[in-house]
Amino acid sequence: MRLNRSSDHALRLMMYLAANPEQRHTIADIAAHYAISRMHLMKIAHQLSLHGWVESSRGKGGGLQLAHPAHTILIGQLLRQTEADCQLVECMGPESSCVLQGCCKLTGVLYGALQAFFAYLDRYTLADLVNDDGLQRMLQPQNKGQ
Hints:
Elements: H1 5-19, H2 27-34, H3 38-50, E1 54-57, E2 63-66, H4 75-82, H5 106-121, H6 126-130, H7 133-138
Antiparallel strand pairs: 1-2
Helix pairs in contact: 1-3, 1-4, 2-3, 4-5
């Protein structure tokens, strides 16, 4: 299983905001920090805002910040919303055309594995991900990732 690029970038954005909670941050600054597309990050930030993960404001002094304290944001919950397609195999989807559907146990086994994956991620918060002095230094705005 591999997370989609949007989920990866959403996690990076959220980690950046969690490491710097005292101020608002622009999409341009975060995109430059990670050397990722500003337009792609803008779409991700918009989705995170719609789902209530981040607060966004425009104008002078505007930018992004976490909508909730980092210690309350579960990684599994965040990824459930950013991963558009968690179907590990075609037969897990609503439009399955598998001839084994209804008698194959693979779907149930994989569904259980997926639930265990998310349950494991739910043991960790965003604060857990950024609770490291070295990482904190790397995520500071003036550092630009160096």
